[in-house]
């Protein structure tokens, strides 16, 4: 049973490494096409995420045991050793003997006698001698980076922006498995009612901690339930739900969401508009529009219309049309959702921040004339990098004097966020460890 799981894990990890495939998408796809049972899926998920999350720490631990150097190993051997060491250190439910035996069996199957002997030798030496201490690393930034398994540039950047304690807390929270949360479709039922419906279908669920629309799923596959299929709920993180509330849209308004796919926030806004008025949901990519439409159909939303558009060319497509609310849930580095997509920390480069900020600013500039006088422009990201957040907003405001920060945003945020001290003058940043949610940034601006 578990031998198959480890081979599948090895293949997924190799694919992520080679083609920079997204871990969550690849894992979901593999699980869908496999015959693995629920327990095996749990183990597979744990090994894949854990090995990516702890990649650099695992390589550091392996270093004294691999004479020719971890980097010079064939990719598959390095990944096999990583995932085996990960299990030896962090998983209690599999006996160490079985972990080593299975690694050696896989090595025999994929390589020659010498390689399986080497894998056996490395893992047995590691068992005997244990992991080398990280305290030998003198440089504090390098030590924290290896301890938490984060790239040094990111640790440095976060320390500059948030200080050492917050950086450590953010890293630690990214190593904890993410919670599954869903948003209740208020057009159909209340949170309490949906919790009962889910319990009747064998799902352990509780009202959310941060968002008034959220339900936290403790146990069970919620996406197989009738409650889900009949459009009572949508998968969404609790901090992401705060964006929909920040938009402050109600029935009869003209609203536009220019970076809308796969539709998490658009469908939330459409629900708050009581399925009335007009919500236009656009995205750059044609194939993603289908996802928005599927969600809107499932949820029974008829006030939402979706189409392809490059937000930077909005005027060419919509002329001079203006809206009461404009949402820019911008493309970003995703540095707030590393807990959910751990590969982000290895694939993003520091230079990506600057190039993505250019796109964010271009989108804001292009949509600004389409905000009605007295209307609101909401800018959100799932990154916590200040350059993509506060700096982007300040740069936009400096050039667009008719916009001001909207201080009424605080009225639409949960009191917990204000008490945490994360709100300031129309801007809010939620760090991943604040409430064990995704990291998020929201700015609300009003056109004078
Ligand atoms: C953070 S995601 C949006 C998530 C979405 N709002 C939700 O809640 O489900 C950013 C989206 O922006 C889209 N995008 C990137 N550049 C764009 C552009 N120039 N114009 C419109 N959409 C763009 C991407 O395809 C991606 O779907």
UniProtKB/TrEMBL annotation:
SUPFAM superfamilies the UniProt entry points to: NusB-like (SSF48013), S-adenosyl-L-methionine-dependent methyltransferases (SSF53335)
Reactions catalysed according to its record: cytidine(967) in 16S rRNA + S-adenosyl-L-methionine = 5-methylcytidine(967) in 16S rRNA + S-adenosyl-L-homocysteine + H(+)
Main subcellular location of this protein, as a coarse class: cytoplasm
PROSITE patterns registered for this protein in UniProt: NOL1_NOP2_SUN, SAM_MT_RSMB_NOP
Claim: Methyltransferase is one of the keywords in the record: yes
Domain SAM-dependent MTase RsmB/NOP-type: 170-448
Annotated residues for binding of S-adenosyl-L-methionine: 259-265, 283, 310, 329
Keyword Electron transport among record annotations: no
Subcellular location: Cytoplasm
EC number, UniProt record: 2.1.1.176
Enzyme's top EC category: transferase
Keyword annotations of the record: Cytoplasm, Methyltransferase, RNA-binding, rRNA processing, S-adenosyl-L-methionine, Transferase
Any one GO molecular-function label of the UniProt entry: rRNA methyltransferase activity
GO cellular component: cytoplasm
Active-site residues, as the UniProt record annotates them: 382 (nucleophile)
NCBIfam families, per the entry: PRK14902.1 (NF011494), rsmB (TIGR00563)
Family in the record: Belongs to the class I-like SAM-binding methyltransferase superfamily. RsmB/NOP family.
Role: Specifically methylates the cytosine at position 967 (m5C967) of 16S rRNA.
Protein name as catalogued: 16S rRNA (cytosine(967)-C(5))-methyltransferase
Organism for this UniProt entry: Halalkalibacter suaedae
